[in-house]
Amino acid sequence: MSEHEPTHSTAADVARRMDTTKPHSARFWNYFVGGKDNYEADREVGDKIKEIFPGLVDVAVTSRHFLSRAITCLAAEHGVRQFLDIGTGLPTADNTHEVAQRVAPDARIVYVDNDPLVLVHARTLLSSTPEGATDYLDADLYDPDAVLRAAAGTLDLTQPVALVLLNVLGHVADHAEARSLVNRLMAGLPSGSYLVIGDSTATSEGMIAASETYNASGAVPYYVRPVDELAAFFDGLDVLEPGIVRITRWRPGPDGASGAAPDVDAYGGVGRKP
Question: How far apart are CA 247 and CA 219, in angstroms?
Answer without folding.
Answer: 25
